Amino acid sequence: MTQRHFGTVLIIILIVTRGLAVSASAAEVRWYSTIEEASSAALKADKPMLLDFWADWCAACKVMEKDVYTDDGFADAANRFLTVRIDFDKKTALARKYGVEALPTLVFTDSYGGELFRYRGFIDAKPLAELMRSLPADVSQFNKLNRILAKDKNNFEALEAMGKNLRSASLFLASNEYYGKALQKNEARANPATKEAILTEMGLNSLEVKDGKSAAETFEKCLKEFPNSQRMTDWTLSLGRAYVLADKKDKAKKLLDAFILRQPDNADSERARALLKSF
Question: Which domains are assigned to the chain?
Fold first, then answer.
């Protein structure tokens, strides 16, 4: 074989090999047809699940099936999950359980199917893969807490721990859902320090997702219920941020001006001035 022929053959081999690698990677995504089957497999490995709610009449769903789910980057990210495709029209009870109102909807869950995060609407392969990589691959702690809550849905320690773990994983909305349940329990009502800590984290969660209204309500409650707390300064500055997010800049200015007037020459006042300059 001449050197020229050898080079041509090598190029062909490389092209074919690359094509096979891409196809194999995409083919590695196994779509389960039932959440029960996927959950059984997920529990053995403490893996999260990705539930894809779709329908035949959903144009965006068809585009995702054709262009997104065949993408090599998505396939690589999907290896961290047990993936399930759920026909919205045929699994209406399941769609109601997860509160699916529009398609496509992607619901990320622990191994039991407990929701951690959701995305509604069309999303391209690259941002979807990035999103999936940002979510926890090991959900063993979530599974452990879920088992406790399955036996006792009012278990305060498990509800609070779920809130903390979700917050640590940057799953702020889900964190607030569990923290909100924990606040309703007697353990939180009877322990001001515990209630104060939970409310603080709930307010910070709301700021993370830029929900100024909820954050403002939470920090206003903190300032009213715990006037002697060491967190007063942080709450006040966080409330200022919340007012700005909620487009209540007049209230933010009034709050921050009063804060600076009380203590004009310290680092916290500089933080307040910086926030004032931001809007």
Answer: 28-137 (3.40.30.10), 152-277 (1.25.40.10)
The one-letter amino acid at 30: R
Bridge partners, residue 84, by sequence? 32, 51
* pTM for this prediction: 0.84
Torsion of Cα atoms, 76 then 43 then 182 then 229, to 10°: -50
In the chain, alpha helices (H): 3-27, 35-45, 59-63, 72-78, 92-97, 125-134, 140-151, 156-168, 172-183, 186-190, 192-208, 212-225, 232-245, 249-262, 267-277
Cα 5 to Cα 12, 98, 150, 238, 257, distances in angstroms: 11, 59, 67, 70, 79
Q: Over the stretch 38-50, which tens digit does the pLDDT of each residue have?
A: 999 999 999 999 9
Tens digit of each residue's pLDDT (9 = 90 or more) over 219-248: 999 999 999 999 999 999 999 999 999 999
